[in-house]
Write a structure and sequence with these properties.
The complex is a heterodimer.
Chain A: H1 2-18, H2 23-61, H3 70-129, H4 134-153, H5 156-160, H6 166-181, E1 185-190, H7 197-216, E2 222-228, E3 232-239, H8 254-266, E4 270-276, E5 280-288
Parallel strand pairs in A: 1-2
Antiparallel strand pairs in A: 2-3, 3-5, 4-5
Chain B: H1 6-13, E1 18-19, E2 31-35, H2 39-49, E3 54-59, H3 62-72, E4 76-80, H4 87-95, E5 103-108, H5 113-122, E6 126-129, H6 134-145, E7 150-151, H7 153-165, H8 180-190, H9 195-202, H10 206-222, H11 225-240
Helix pairs in contact in B: 1-2, 3-4, 5-10, 7-8, 8-10, 9-10
Classes of the chains: A alpha+beta, B alpha/beta.
Chain lengths: 292, 243
């Protein structure tokens, strides 16, 4: 019964590989398929041969004499089988895990290649087409640098863009303003903590302050510094631009009054604007938090 | 005219460990070796630095760098943090015991705090990001040559982070803590203020600002290895286990 099943199973396997493949793929699929099948035959055949040989040897030596009991026979055959087939099993298991590791490596390489293609290569192409426009090239390079940094060094949530942490939110806000207005924002953030409505207000106010600095200050760069502690969050947005007279903010520029000072006050925080004509501006933001 | 013309510098920039004419400039301008594994970047730095400092050699590998530094004994080595065969840290480790007078200024695009802190702990007198302008870079080299420490906003942030994550005051020596004033100075650097502006704002002299920064650097280099390595491990764990 058992000996009858094995050959039919094999031949049906072979039939699928050799005859069942569509005409187009056959040319490519045939050769490696045949080789693999051949190897399996050789291996299984070798194994069977060894088992038969081992049994014959045991018989000749006299271990399998009829006067011994059944348990003794079974034990002897089991030991013989382990000795003969053990290495084969080990080898198969090892080559499987090796194949698995190789597959994972290949997956990682493909992912990296895909990422570099979507990001760095695209940017390089854009830079080549914009090579006459220094500002565009600088902006492209900055944007790519920021994206690559996030990908290399930061937590997974920072890569996707959605975050419930203060640090990532501030970095994303700075990145967006930088991209929108083409002014580099040097971002330094110490510590981290979860986002809540008060801190969210601070992030929004900082964003507004960065936008103002990028749009109106005529500064070459803007500095954002934030310190996140369990009991408080402070942030400074600073530029070295033209500066302005705080008491003379025109009524149409409600950004400072509403979006920064008003917003912080509404959320129980505080905002201070230091500015002098010709010396730049620094907006200081702070909220106190209940320790968790 | 010195031998360090810009055209020459471009041509030399691509070669490895090029040793230039040392007798050309006896003046006060510091002698610099540029170490970076990117030839393009070395050439760019040479071109940008212009006449304010004199680049006496450059190198693209740790081996070449050590040889070039020992041959030329420069005032300042501009050092890339990331290079094959151990990077900037390895260069400092091999040169400092032999030539303790050479000062190192790290220059990198790297954002990994642990790498930057490692280079500072090995003995670098400062850390700048590669996006810095040629003029600011020349300023920084002159200051490092004079013995000052040069902190970029980013380095100030890393250092504040390092000390903030250290355990509570009861658990560690006084040496490992920053004073209130040192913290204040570092915060101002992180906010983008220059030393001169910080001095004005805090109503102290520029020399005092520099003294505070040097003190921070010393604490960072002397503070117990244990605490900082623990900090680095914590940080890496935080990065790995993010939500």
């Amino acid at each position: 019964m058992a000996s009858a099943q094995t050959p039919t199973g094999r031949s049906s396997d072979g039939g699928i590989t050799l005859a069942g493949a569509p005409a187009l793929t056959q040319l490519q699929a045939r050769k490696p398929g045949r080789i693999r099948l051949g190897r399996t035959f050789v291996r299984v055949g070798g194994l069977l041969l060894r088992i038969v040989f081992a049994l014959a040897l045991l018989h000749v030596v006299g271990v399998l004499r009829p006067e011994r009991n059944v348990v003794g026979h079974a034990a002897v055959i089991l030991v013989a089988f382990t000795v003969v087939a053990g290495p084969w099993f080990l080898r198969t298991a090892r080559s499987l895990s090796f194949e698995r590791a190789a597959r994972i490596r290949e997956q990682e390489r493909a992912e990296l290649a895909a990422h570099l293609h979507d990001s760095v290569l695209q940017t390089l192409a854009l830079i080549q087409t914009h090579s006459g426009d220094a500002t565009a090239v600088a902006t492209l390079a900055r944007r790519q640098e920021r994206a690559l940094r996030r990908w290399l060094f930061e937590r997974p949530d920072a890569r996707t863009g959605a975050s419930d942490m203060v640090k990532t939110s501030l970095e994303l806000a700075a990145g967006e303003v930088e991209e929108l207005h083409g002014v580099p924002i040097e971002t330094v953030i110490v510590g981290d903590g979860p986002l809540n409505s008060r801190v969210e207000a601070l992030v929004q106010a900082a964003r507004e302050a960065m936008t103002n600095a990028a749009k109106f200050a005529q500064s070459e760069r803007v500095d954002l510094y934030a310190e996140i502690e369990p009991t408080r969050v402070i942030a400074f947005v600073r530029d070295r631009g033209v500066g302005f007279d705080i008491d003379a903010i025109p009524s149409d520029r409600c950004g400072v009054r509403d979006s920064i000072l008003g917003r912080m006050r509404r959320h129980g925080g505080r905002a201070t604007v230091h500015s002098a004509l010709g010396e730049g501006t620094e907006v200081e933001l702070a909220v106190e938090l209940q320790p968790a | 005219m010195s031998a360090e013309g810009k055209d020459d510098a471009d041509a030399r920039g691509t070669a490895h460990a090029v040793v230039c004419n040392q007798s050309a400039r006896p003046g006060p301008s510091p002698r610099v070796v540029v170490v970076d594994d990117h030839g393009l970047f070395r050439a760019g730095v040479r071109a940008e630095l212009g006449d304010r400092v004199s680049v006496v050699a450059d190198a693209g590998t740790v081996e070449d760098a050590v040889r070039a530094i020992e041959q030329t004994t420069p005032d300042v080595v501009l050092l890339d943090v990331h290079m094959p065969d151990g990077g900037g840290v390895e260069v400092i480790r091999r040169v400092l015991p032999v030539l303790p007078s050479v000062r190192f200024l790290a220059l990198s695009v790297s954002d990994a705090a642990s790498d930057v802190i490692a280079v500072i702990r090995a003995g670098a007198r400062g850390y700048l990001t590669k996006t810095i302008s040629g003029e600011d870079l020349a300023d920084a080299i002159v200051r490092v040559a004079e013995g000052d420490a040069v902190f970029s906003p980013r380095l100030a942030g890393f250092v504040l982070d390092a000390f903030a994550r250290a355990p509570s005051p009861g658990e560690q020596a006084e040496l490992d803590q920053l004073t209130a004033r040192e913290r204040e100075v570092l915060q101002h650097i992180a906010r983008g203020y220059m030393y001169k502006e910080i001095a004005q704002r805090l109503d102290i002299s520029v020399k005092t600002v520099e003294a505070h920064v040097s003190a921070v650097l010393r604490k960072l280099q002397l503070s117990s290895r244990h605490e900082l390595s623990r900090w680095a491990i914590q940080r890496r764990l935080v990065n790995l286990d993010g939500p």
